[in-house]
Write a structure and sequence with these properties.
This protein has 200 residues and is of the alpha+beta class. Helices cover 46% and strands 18% of the residues. The chain has a single domain, classed as Beta-Lactamase (2-Layer Sandwich). Strands 2-1-5-4-3 form a five-stranded antiparallel sheet, sandwiched between helices. The protein is elongated and about 80 Å long.
Amino acid sequence: MVKIVSLGVLRQEAGTKPIILANAFDLNSFTYFKRSGVREMITFFSRTFVERTQKGQRQSIQHEEYNCHVYVRQDGLAGIVVCDQDYPPRVAFALMNKMLEEFNKETNGSWAQNPGNGSLDWAPLTKALEDYQDPTKADKISAIQKELDETTAVLSKTIDSVLERGEKLDDLVSKSADLSSQSKVFYKQAKKTNSCCVVM
């Protein structure tokens, strides 16, 4: 199942641990008793990964069945998306870029002086967490890819399913006017050669 677990906006400063400016969690997939521990682990990983990411760099770190996508801008504003491995990284980074731009714009750059530790209650982050749970709804390219995958699945019928009931491919080949006698001989020889490998 494709799922985002957490979104975070942090400030990276030289010589100190990154400061959490805002974050949002969706921990409904975890049992009630595990949620606080999971939240603490995500906070720990967020700070650690942002601290170890160079300014201007993006990276994806895999931990167990989750990916942590991190981006630190040149000005030190950083974002992190924690999601399962099925979530498309391109969509995660696009979401992160959008959130960081909006955050910077709404705070007029005051985030650089904010004491942090999640003290900013920023509603757009929570809304983005909800809106981007299904990447095909939030991202046009993912939606197109999903449609293509469905179309491919429909078109991937075997020759046998296309043939009418009771018809055999051998009969169609022998009756075909589109095939030369050489092609018909080739088909029969190929079938005979491949028949030794069929496991019944």
